[in-house]
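Assemble and predict.
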Amino acid sequence: MVSKVSKLFRGRLVLFTGMLLWLTTVASVQAEETQPERVKDLRYGWALYEYHQGNAFEALTQLAVARERGGIDGHGDYPALVEGGLMLSWGMTREASRVFTQLLGDDGAGSTLAPDVRNQAWFYLGKVFYLEGDHALARKNLERVNGDVLAEANHELFREWVYLQARLLMMSPDSGDESKRISLQALLEDTDIWALYLRYNSAVSTLDAGDSVAAEAELKKLISIIDPPSLADEPDRERQGMLSRARLSLAQLYLRENRFEAALEVLGAMSLSGVYVEQALFAYAVAAARQGQPERALDALDSLSNRELFSPWRQQVPFARAYVLEQMNKPQRALSAFKQAADHYAARIEALNNTRARLSEENLMAQLEFRRDSDGILTDSFGRLQVEPVDFSIAEVLAEETFQQALAELNELYQMQSFIAERQARFESFRVMLETREQQRRIRIAQTRAALASQQADQWQQLQQAFSEKISAALAEEDARFFMTSKQKALRERLDQVEATLAGLPDDETTASQRATYRRMRAHFDWWIANDYGVNRWDAQKQLQDLDREMERFQSQRQRVEALMADDARHDDLAQRITASEQELESVGEEVSNALRSARQKLLHQVDRMLEARQEEISGYLLASRHAQARLADQLFQESQSAGASNE
Amino acid sequence: MADYLRKQLPALIVALLLVFTASVSAQSNRESGNDDAAVAEQVEALKKKVIRLNRDLFILEEDLLFPANTQVAVFVSVDTGKFLELDAVKLKVDDEIVASHLYTERQVTALARGGMQRLYIGNLKTGRHQITAFVEGVGPEQRPYKQAASLEFEKGTGTAALEIRVEDRSSNYQPSVSILEWE
């Protein structure tokens, strides 16, 4: 029996953590079976590296950085598709919807993406809205999917798509949708697990509408499809779970109609190791008691109370047990059982009071076991945390979609808070970096100034100015001698020396020939200078212009260096960006703290609501137990009085 | 009183049926309240802000620490990784080890799916530099595999981006490692 119980427990874990998230576990956000294309943009490659590790935040940041740095080249619309997928997986459904609509167009055709890729984008978007309970947006997006293309590309998704659409039609208040739903359902084989879920939900809807005959027929049909289990082509556990569920529902329907024999027959066929065994045992006890078989009822209740783990169904057992004993005409035992039941319920109420009073995030988290790997808590494709209850009593609330969402939000907010704290700590180092950068700049400026000084720039400028003035004056005076070449100047010097030598000699016959030669040479020299004046002047002017140009360039560079040295714009810009980012970080940090408070309250409120409902239910049993106690005590007293009187 | 008690069991059945109906909605959606939606929208708006903020801080940090004229970044890619199960990469720039990384299973998968890891970002002066990558892992037939690749490159005044590419070489069923410079 013990081994059966633990097997059952594992089954229930699967139920609570798996079944309600059934929709989320079929496929990941993007089909990745094909060989990846080599990236043509480094930043995109980096974003993909984060994306494939499930680091949505880092990947989204890289895509945002790429956009800021000029976009991603060579990958068409795929980066936007990846971004939309990342947003979906990080719970940014509205933003993802905006990205997809912008990318794919309202008709789903306005993009270079392949039709099957577009289809999957709409499918996943619709599915996320469905899970969030936004039926209008879910329907809108699922209707954009081309069923034929999806069936061809991914039949698994196609079946799920049919299921989601049919469920939305089922929940729609428009009665005209019924025929659409039937035609959709016809696209699935009867044995398809999605068709089974649809049939089950259809039975429930029919029952809600008050048509128990149709609901009974639907449930019987469902049972006949699943049983025998050899027909199963899906994981057996899921089908067996569905079979148990259908049988239990049918039995409950019979109970409601006081058809106890039929209920006992259906419940008797249920496996004792199934997921719904506790509910089945209780229903069995009810049916047996009402059928006039209190012993069988008592057996079922005993089996139920012997279960090791807590189940909401067990809290009804003490009262029901006492009731059955009374039905068996054992008033003494029944009185004692009612007393025990009352004590049990009073203790449970007290325990729940304590639990509610002590309810805190810490206590709640202690009841949850998160699945982790070396990189942190594992999530599914839609960002929900993979979590199991440590205390099975909270499995009920854990199974709720809203609780799962709130839990995921809380986790994300904590991650944001940790990001903000980590970034805030880095601002100090940012400042140090900026200061270091500024110091290095100052050092470089000092070095540059020293280098400029060593160039003696001012002195060179004065020389250039003086030279320029001299040339201008020579030009004005047409001073041919000024523009002589070096060779001419050397020759003039030698002529001057000859002239000086001749001046020291007697001017007579002995020097006449030399003086004549000198005059001839001097005349020739003067003629040469006059003749070369134009060429020499032009050459000097050209040299001067080249010098002017070089000096101008030098001055311009010098001014630029001076301007750079004087300009702190870059430093100021960085400093401003640091300050602005720090302020923004602080502001976002406050918002995150507020959101954390809200998310925490929301989460605890949900748990408290569940505990309150459980408390109210138990209070009902407590009241009924005490009334029964009083009534039985009264009855036994009167019986003893009557017996005494008759003895007298 | 007896009547009251007799009414209890049918009440339990009703409770059962209520739970039954509730359990059905396990397959259906639950309507979220306005408060829930408000928190969800608030969280979504915050996420947008945090992404923008992280983007700005990321760019600021790059501008501050790695100015464009000196920046050099080295990426790692794996194509397709059938002949090598990547274990670790070590990087030397001008004979100095500047980065090393041990890969987790998730990171290896991300690389095999087309992702590129930024292994290193730093600053280098303009001029010629040598970069050497040492790749370790498990090669064909589960044998330890080590290979190095080197590249001499000219660092100009713009950012430099290099890629350590681990490829499968179908000609000899061996992995190969090379370093490429991105334009």
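Chain A touches chain B through 104 residues (CB under 8 Å).
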